Amino acid sequence: MLRDITLGQYYQTESVIHRLDPRVKLAGTVIFIISLFCFHHVWGYLCAALFLFAVVKLSKVPFKFMIKGMRSILFLLLITVVFNLFLTPGETVLTIWKLHITKEGIRIAVFMVIRLTMLIIGSSLMTLTTTPNNLTDGMEKAMRPLRLFRLPVHEIAMIMSIALRFIPILMEETDKIMKAQIARGADFESGNIFKKAKAMVPLLVPLFISAFRRANDLAMAMEARCYRGGEGRTKMKPLIYKRRDVAAYLLLFAFLAGSIAVDRIPNMIVKTPAEEQAVRTERVLTETCAEFDGLGVEAHAEFCALYKTTGEKRIETLYADRRI
Amino acid sequence: MSIILDHVSHVYGDDTTLAVKALDDISLVIPDGQFIGLIGHTGSGKSTLVQHLNGLLCATSGSIYFDGQDIDDEDFNKKELRSKVGLVFQYPEHQLFEVDVFSDVCFGPKNLGLSKKETELRAYEALKKVGLPDECFYQSPFDLSGGQKRRVAIAGVLAMKPQVLILDEPTAGLDPKGREEILGQICKLKEESNITVILVSHSMEDVAEYVERILVMNQGRIMYDDVPKEVFKHYKELEEVGLAAPQVTYIMHNLKKAGLRVDENATTIKEAAREVYRVLTERTRTL
Asked: Over pLDDT 90: what percentage of chain B?
C-alpha cells in the first residue's frame, strides 16, 4: 500500500557504490547537483545522464526503485513545468486564453524537468545505497569544521539519523493502522478531498500517538545507556578514506570538468565562413536599423525592402550616402 | 459462510533482493462455526494468512473462496467481506482514535452505513459482550488500562457483527488475569453466537483449552491440521520448530514413563486431573 515511497529508503545489496565512504557519496551528490545547474546545452545533460546511468548500473539497485521515488514528486514537477511554461517572458509561440507559451518558457520547462528528474534520481541513489547511520556519520564528519561557529553538529546529525531511521518504522506503522481501520470498514480512497481528509483522522490520531510513544521510549533507552551528546564520543566504525574513495573523488572531478567542457563545445566550435558572414550581416543590420529608426517609419520600411532585395553591400553604400 | 483456500502463496517484496515467501501453497477449508487455533512461531506466516482471509492482502498465486465466490474477482464486494470476516489485529488498542470509547466502537458499524440507532445499539451490545464496565463507556480510550483498551478494540470489530472472527494474538502483552478474561470472553462469545472463530497465537496453552481444531504453521506451510489431541501427539516435532505442547502433555508423558498408566492424550488441566484421579483410585482399589 505505502511501500512504493522509496525516497530515503535503503536498498540492501552488495556493490561498489554501497561500499564507498558516505562522504564521497555526499560530495558526489552535491557535485552532481551543482553540475546540473551549470549546463546550458543538451550536451551537458547527456553527459550527466550517461554518468548517472553508469552509477546506477554499478550500484545494482533496480532502476524501478528510482522511478518509484519519482512518483512522489510528480506533482511538484508538474507545477514547475506549468509555471515556467506560462510565466516566462519572451517570444510567444502559442496563446491559450490570456496565457502565453513562449519559446524561452518551453526551453526552461524542458530543462527544469530534466534537472529535477536527474536531481531526484541522483539523490535517491545516495539514500538507496547508504544506510541512514552511515549517511549521518558522513554528514557529521563533513560538517565538523562548522563546530567552530558553535553549531551543534553532532546533535544535528543525531536528529537526522533518528528521523531517517523512523521513516520506515512509521511507514510500517501507518500500513498496519491503515489495514486495521480498513478491516473496520474505513474507506481511504473514495470521496472528495474533504471526505478523504476526514477519513485520515482514524489513521493520523493513532499514528501520532504511536510516534510520541516511540519517541518517549527512545529517549528513555538512550538515557539509560548514558547518552549525553557528542562531547568525547567515539565511533565503533570510524570513517577512514580508502583507495576506492580516492579513486571515486578523482572520477567525480573528472566528470565535473568533463561534462562542463562538453557543455561548452558548441560555443567553441570554429565557425564556417558562411556563418561568419551571416553574423556580420546581422550586426550591420541591427546597427543600421538603430540609425534608421531616427528617420521615421517610411525610411525604415524602405530600408527593409532594400535589404531583402539587394543585400549587404548595397546597404553599406546606402548607409554611407545617408550619412553624408 | 465457509472459507476455502486453494493453493495460496504470498511473497513479500517481490521485486527486491529481500523477497520473502510468507505463504507457501496453502490449501484449507474453514467450515461454519468452527473454533480454530492457528499456531506458529514468530514469522511463520500466521498474520499473513489471516490478512488474506478478509482481503487485506492479495494472494501472489492461488485463490480464496468465500461462500463459493472468489474474493479476487473484480465484482466481488470486498467491503462486505470485511464486515463478515472481522479481523482483530495484534495490539488492536493501537488503532483507537476517538474521543470516547463508545464512539470508537461505533466507527465500524457507522462505516457499514447503518442508521444511528442501529449503530449505537450494536456498539452497546458489543461493549457488553466484551464485559467492559458501563462507567468506562464515555471515558477517553487512552485513559483505560491495557486489558480494557484491548477489549474496546475487540468490541470495535464485534460491533460489525462478523460471521467469522479472527483474533491475531489477542493475549499478547497481557498479564495472566487479563489473558484468562479475554480468552474466556471469546469462548463465551463463540458459544452464544455460534460464529467461526480463528484464534492466532504462538502459545499452545492459550489455545489447547478452547479450540476444536488446530492449524500449526511453519515457514509458510501448514504443518499439522487436526484436533488438539492428535496435534499434541507430535510434541517432539513441535519442539523442533520452536513450539511446545501444553505443559499438561509433558506431565502426562512423564507420569506414564514413571509407571502410572494414564492416557497421555489429555490436553487440558481438567482432563489430566480427572485422568490421574481415575488411575489413582483404580490403583487403590486393586491394592
From this structure: 24
Query: In Å, what is the CA distance from A59 to each residue of A16, A19, A25, A131, B14?
Result: 7, 10, 12, 14, 19
Return the ∠ at Cα A88 (arms to A86 and A94), rounded to 5°: 50
Nearest-neighbour CA in chain B from A183: distance (Å): 6
Query: For residues B78 and B111, is the Cβ–Cβ distance under 8 A?
Result: no
Q: Note the pTM of the prediction, 2 decimals.
A: 0.68
What ipTM, to 2 d.p.?
Answer: 0.84
Sequence-distant (6+) residues with CB within 8 A of B285 are none
State whether residue B85 is helix, strand or coil: strand
- Per-residue pLDDT band at A4 (split at 50, 70, 90): very low
- What region, left, alpha or beta, does residue B33 occupy, with left being phi > 0 and alpha being psi -120 to 50 degrees? left
Residue A294 pLDDT greater than 70, yes or no: no
Q: Tell me if A10 sits within 8 A of A134, measured CB to CB.
A: no
Number of neighbours of residue A143 by Cβ within 10 angstroms? 15
**Within 10 A of B268 (CB to CB), how many other CB atoms are there?**
15
C-alpha cell at A282: 546581422
Q: What is the model's pLDDT at position A8?
A: 53
Q: Which residue has the cell 523477497?
A: B19
Size of interface A-B (CB pairs under 8 A): 64
pLDDT attached to residue B78: 83
Please answer whether residues B217 and B38 qualify as being in contact, where contact means their C-beta atoms are separated by less than 8 angstroms. yes
Residue B105 contacts by C-beta under 8 Å, 6 or more apart in sequence?
A: B123, B126, B127, B152, B155, B156, B159
Identify the residue with better confidence: B257 or A7: B257
| Tens of pLDDT, residues A216-252 | 999 999 999 988 877 778 888 888 888 999 999 999 9
Question: Residues A185, B44, B27, CA angle at the centre, nearest 5°?
Answer: 75
What b/e readout covers B7-20, taking b as 16+ CB neighbours within 10 angstroms?
ebebbeeeebeeee
Alpha-carbon distance of A55 to A44, in angstroms, equals: 17
Interatomic CA distance for residues A322 and A318, integer angstroms: 6
Given pLDDT bands bounded at 50, 70 and 90, which one contains residue A304? low
User: Contact at 8 Å (CB) between A104 and A89?
Assistant: yes
- Residues 65-104, chain B, touching A (beta carbon < 8 A): 79, 82-83, 86-87, 89, 92, 94-97
Residue A13: which of B17, B79, B142 has the nearest Cβ? B17
Q: What is the mean pLDDT of residues A67-92?
A: 80
Pairwise CA distance, residues B156 & B148, whole Å: 12
- CA B146/CA B91 separation, integer angstroms: 10
Q: Give the C-alpha distances (Å, rounded to integers) separating A124 from A40, A65, A75, A179.
A: 24, 9, 17, 28
β-bridge partners, B3: B30, B66
Residue B164 Cα to chain centre, angstroms: 10
Q: CA nearest B206: which of B36, B32, B53, B87?
A: B36
Closest to B89 (Cβ–Cβ): which among A13, A64, A180?
A180
Using an 8 Å CB-CB cutoff, list chain B residues near A13: 17
Give the whole-angstrom CA distance, residue B108 versus residue B103: 10
Bridge partners, B69 (sequence order)? B66
